[in-house]
Each structure stands twice: as C-alpha cells, then as structure tokens.
From TrEMBL:
The gene is prtfdc1b. Keywords: Glycosyltransferase, Transferase. It comes from Cottoperca gobio. Residues 52-145 form the Phosphoribosyltransferase domain. InterPro entries: HGPRT (IPR050408), PRTase-like (IPR029057), PRTase_dom (IPR000836). CDD domains: PRTases_typeI (cd06223). It holds the Pfam family Pribosyltran. The keyword Flavoprotein does not apply. The keyword RNA-binding does not apply. GO terms for biological process: GMP salvage; guanine salvage; hypoxanthine metabolic process; IMP salvage. This is LOW QUALITY PROTEIN: phosphoribosyltransferase domain-containing protein 1b. GO terms for molecular function: hypoxanthine phosphoribosyltransferase activity; magnesium ion binding. One of its GO terms (cellular component) is cytosol.
C-alpha cells in the first residue's frame, strides 16, 4: 500500500493502518457515481484485498443470531477455524465462540480480515488478522450499510452524509 503509514503486526502477519492516516483520495479510484458524496476515503484498495482473502457476503445486525449451526456435534475433537470479515466490538465473536465451544472441538482459531481498534476489546482479538483498522464504519467489498455499498471494489470509510442518506 504505497504512501501509507502502516506497520506489519509480527504476531498476526496483518497490516496495521494508523488511526491518523487519512486514507487514499477518492479521486484515485473508480466507484459508482451514485455514491459520490457518501464516502470519505478508500482505506484498503481492491488489489490489496484480493491478495489476502476471498470475499464473502456479510450483514451487520444489532442482535447476534446463529442460523444454520444449531447442531455442530460433528466438530467434537476437531480443529476449527472461524473466519470473520470484520471484528469490531467482539459481540458476535463472543457469542459464536461460546456456541462452538459447547460442542467440544479440539482447538478453535479465529481469522479476521478487518479488526477494528475498539477500546476494551482485547478479550476477543482474532488469532490471525488481515488488516487492523481504526474504529470507523467501513463499507465496500461485500460490507454494507443497510444493503448499500456492497458493490464497491474497495473498503472505504462512509461519510456522515452517506450514513444519513442511507439510514433506515
């Protein structure tokens, strides 16, 4: 990531993006015109993400509900890797880990593409981190805000006017 003040986190192998880094100017990227004015900057460009993971759709919700994983007894005695697109408050991860642990796996490891630096969240940090990012609301690359912005090829910080425009 050229011209970025980043560090490599030796423990996780992830990239740490400093809180005060302003991001890439939107003028450097192509994005759908209907998002003009709704984004502040590009935090992680498309090509960097392609090198680290395959994107999966994700949906953010207030309450954590585990769907389709009621009986995980087949995990007993197995090694389990949980892959999360984004880890913020850790609420989802705590709930999921508790649920999976109940089925007696041999080992559980967690990988997070994006891990936000959120105060008081050291108890739920993943074992493997793709990018450590500031505690800002990010969209794009399958991360949405009320079903918008999933189609962006980059991970961007949504602007306050964008939040207002697409608020439900």
């Amino acid at each position: 990531m050229a011209d970025v003040v980043v560090q490599s986190d030796r423990k996780s192998g992830g990239i740490v993006i400093d809180d005060d880094w302003p991001g890439y100017s939107l003028d450097l990227f192509s994005y759908p015109a209907h998002y003009s004015g709704d984004l502040d900057c590009v935090v992680i460009p498309h090509g960097v993400i392609m090198d680290r993971t395959e994107p999966q759709n994700d949906q953010s919700t207030e309450d954590v509900h585990i769907v389709g994983a009621e009986d995980l007894s087949f995990l007993a005695g197995k090694n389990v890797l949980i892959v999360e697109a984004i880890v913020g408050t850790g609420k989802t991860m705590k709930t999921l880990l508790k649920h999976v642990e109940a089925f007696g796996p041999k080992m559980i490891k967690v990988a997070g593409l994006l891990v936000k630096r959120v105060p008081h969240n050291s108890a739920c940090l993943p074992d493997y981190v793709g990018f450590e990012i500031p505690d800002q609301f990010v969209v794009g690359y399958a991360l949405d805000y009320n079903e918008y912005f999933r189609d962006l090829n980059h991970i961007c910080v949504i602007s306050e006017s964008g939040k207002t425009k697409y608020k439900i």
